[in-house]
Amino acid sequence: KNIHFIHGPGCPVCIMPKERIDHAYILSQQQDVILVTLGDMIKVPGSHGSLQDARSQGADVRFVYSPMDCLKIATEHPNKKVIFFAIGFETTTPMTAALIEQVIKQKIDNIYFHINHVTVPEAMTMLTQSKIDAFLGPSHVSVISGSHIYAPFPTQYHRPVVVSGFEPVDVMESISMILKQFLENRCELEIQYKRAVNPEGNQRAQALINKYFEPREHFRWRGIGDIAKSALRLRDAFASLDAEVIYRDSLPTKEIDDHKLCICGEILKGEKNPKDCKVFGTACKPSSPLGSCMVSSEGACAAYYKYGNLL
Ligand code: SF4
Ligand code: SF4
């Protein structure tokens, strides 16, 4: 009963600040643009509305399951500019890098990128300031990055890390591994998800990421604030593909805060529970989300809304 699970800021949709959602919206309004993005991004409200709203007002906004689908869209619409609004942690960054590689190799001249890829270790470092005793390391990210990225957490921050799979039995085993560490007075980095994760990770994917991207000095996480070097940008050598550079004059840089009643940031840091939010289930529900944690069925608030009576 005294084990509490906290939805960390592990979702690229949840943590996207409104000003960058506004970038996507504004890009979708530019002449001859087809804006392409992944999954739930299309539903998150920015200050002008969501991409879904933009689409219902006539903008050409599409969502794809793989960034590579942009190649087909660009070939079918040679007179349009296809802008890929790239989101995701280390799991999806290599897919964007692979698309960039193809765009360059195939000399495709109508695909551009708005890069919003974020990185896990910097967010975890920020979380060490919260009351969190141990981390379950994310499996899919770790397949790419390797478990070595968590090395400082047991040594420098005194938090055990167990890299866990997603299946219920994986999570249960990972929790028992963490409890065992506490009982045996150990504080270590362990891998439960050994069937896919090793210390080094996928070095080819890492090389591809490094080829095209470099860390941004600053990136604001929705509800949390600035986390230094926690996101990637295209290297200057690829500025001709960078929609943030090309449309610089149209894209606002001003930070936009969330609805003042929304406490997503505190929820993502484990300081509050969705039910602590004054508008949970009333003004904010899955059919009319005020904050990002209510958008996806996996979001902390949406999960509490759906399963709250079981918790
Ligand atoms: S219930 Fe809605 S407004 Fe409240 S914290 Fe969750 S997403 Fe934000
Ligand atoms: S919680 Fe976050 S998990 Fe995850 S889908 Fe958001 S919206 Fe994404």
3D structure, described in words:
The protein is an alpha/beta fold and 311 residues long. The chain has 3 domains: 18-120 and 203-250, HypD, alpha/beta domain 2 (Rossmann fold, 3-Layer(aba) Sandwich), CATH 3.40.50.11740; 121-191, HypD, alpha/beta domain 1 (Rossmann fold); 264-310, no CATH class. The chain is built from 12 helices and 11 strands. The protein has helices spanning 18-28, 51-56, 69-76, 93-105, 120-127, 139-145, 152-155, 168-183, 203-212, 243-246, 264-268, 300-307; strands at 33-38, 60-64, 81-88, 111-117, 135-138, 161-164, 189-191, 213-215, 220-221, 225-226, 232-234. It has a 4-stranded parallel beta sheet, with helices on both faces. A 3-stranded parallel beta sheet has the order 5-6-7. The model has no long low-confidence stretch (mean pLDDT 93). It binds iron/sulfur cluster (2 copies).
Question: In a few lines, what is going on in this structure?
Answer:
With 311 residues, the protein is of the alpha/beta class. It is built from twelve helices and eleven strands.
Describe how the helices and strands are arranged.
Elements: H1 18-28, E1 33-38, H2 51-56, E2 60-64, H3 69-76, E3 81-88, H4 93-105, E4 111-117, H5 120-127, E5 135-138, H6 139-145, H7 152-155, E6 161-164, H8 168-183, E7 189-191, H9 203-212, E8 213-215, E9 220-221, E10 225-226, E11 232-234, H10 243-246, H11 264-268, H12 300-307
Parallel strand pairs: 1-2, 1-3, 3-4, 5-6, 6-7
Antiparallel strand pairs: 8-11, 9-10
This protein binds iron/sulfur cluster (2 copies).
Shape: globular
Order of helices and strands: HEHEHEHEHEHHEHEHEEEEHHH
Text of the CATH class of the largest domain: Alpha Beta
- The portion of residues assigned to helices is 25-40%
Radius of gyration over alpha carbons?
Answer: 20 Å
What is the name of the CATH topology of the largest domain?
A: Rossmann fold
State which percent range the strand residues make up: 15-25%
Number of helices, counting only DSSP H or I runs of 4 residues or more: 12
Cα distance, first to last residue? 12 Å
Bound heterogens, unique = iron/sulfur cluster
Q: Describe the strand arrangement of the main beta sheet, using strand numbers.
A: 2-1-3-4
